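Postdoc handover notes: sequence design on the structure in folder B. Input tokens:
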């Protein structure tokens, strides 16, 4: 396992970090804890979660209880006032069974908080740090402009930003600015929300950038094993992988839906984060899983879209799901026949 410093912090973290959003979906907490423990045993020492990932913090605590001092734990809060942030911090500390968070991040705020502002957000972060309940503070965001402003402000030790081999020149530039200013750069959505299915290619591409720490979302043991194997035997970014990446970039880059879900909730209960990229999901993952009765019912909701526009207002990538969710998704079965496995 390789380790690097996170920006100019004193945190030394494994270059394969454990993204804990998916362990929400592991029903048995003991099974989730066993996956977390296996990650630790393999040398992973950096675990990222969030207050909004339901029971993910508790499952992490279960797996890491004996090793708290040996690991780096990052969590996030979507609070928008200092008072709410303190409440969230107390909940996270309780859930994680610890008295300090290594990296406490603001979760996708729509502005960069400043000291002395009436919302009290940044002042609360500063006081947590003084009290010792938080070691370093971070800013997690999907907006390149806000991420850049956060780096420029010099107020944050690390940023977390979507970064994968589909990144455009602006994203790469942002990563370089973070490196130049020694701001930690944590890559979320390193598999572009499930659109990238070639793990070795994603891993090899990311390894080019020593300052980037990808957090790989892990739900199952075999997913963890893939990353551990790549850590043991890293493969070079050779011509074959470069060609594959180039093909994916051609097919997927640009205004594609990342599946982040920030457009939700939808008043018509449409699962926009999947509906808006269903043609890609069908091409890139086994068709059968999208053909269950449950998915047919969920996709059937698309016809109830009222074009209220709420999703477009919330989408950090400027997408208009009510226009891009294909009209033919209304006949889901024939849509699957068109895009699914032949
Ligand atoms: S439409 Fe936008 S906000 Fe919604 S899932 Fe896709 S990228 Fe995210
Ligand atoms: S425009 Fe349609 S998909 Fe978007 S929030 Fe409104 S009802 Fe939902």
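Designed sequence:
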């Amino acid at each position: 396992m390789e380790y690097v410093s996170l920006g100019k912090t004193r945190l030394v973290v494994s270059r394969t970090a454990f993204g804990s959003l998916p362990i929400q979906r592991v029903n048995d907490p003991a099974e989730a804890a066993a996956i977390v423990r296996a990650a630790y045993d393999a040398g992973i020492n950096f675990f990222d979660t969030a207050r909004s990932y339901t029971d993910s913090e508790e499952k992490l605590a279960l797996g890491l209880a004996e090793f708290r001092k040996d690991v780096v734990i990052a969590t996030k809060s979507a609070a928008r006032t200092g008072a709410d942030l303190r409440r969230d911090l107390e909940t996270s500390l309780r859930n994680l069974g610890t008295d300090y968070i290594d990296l406490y991040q603001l979760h996708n705020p729509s502005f960069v908080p400043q000291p002395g502002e009436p919302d009290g957000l940044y002042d609360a972060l500063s006081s947590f740090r003084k009290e010792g309940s938080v070691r370093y503070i971070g800013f997690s965001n999907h907006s390149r402009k806000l991420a850049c402003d956060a780096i420029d402000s010099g107020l944050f030790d690390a940023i977390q930003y979507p970064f994968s081999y589909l990144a455009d020149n602006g994203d790469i530039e942002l990563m370089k600015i973070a490196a130049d200013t020694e701001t930690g750069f944590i890559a979320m959505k390193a598999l572009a929300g499930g659109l990238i299915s070639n793990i070795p290619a994603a891993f090899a591409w990311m390894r080019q950038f020593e300052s980037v720490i990808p957090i790989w979302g892990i739900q199952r043991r075999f997913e963890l094993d893939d990353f551990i194997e790549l850590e043991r035997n890293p493969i070079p970014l050779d011509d074959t992988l470069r060609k594959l990446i180039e093909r994916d970039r051609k097919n997927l880059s640009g205004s594609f839906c990342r599946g982040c879900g920030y457009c939700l909730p939808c008043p018509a209960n449409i699962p926009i984060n999947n509906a808006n990229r269903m043609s890609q999901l069908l091409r890139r993952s086994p068709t059968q899983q999208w053909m269950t009765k449950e998915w047919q019912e969920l996709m059937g909701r698309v016809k109830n879209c009222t074009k209220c526009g709420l999703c477009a207002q919330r989408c950090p990538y400027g997408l208009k799901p009510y226009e891009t969710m294909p009209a033919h998704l209304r006949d889901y079965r024939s849509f699957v026949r068109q895009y699914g496995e032949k």
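Context for whoever picks this up: DSSP finds 15 helices and ten strands in the chain. Don't rerun without checking with the PI first.
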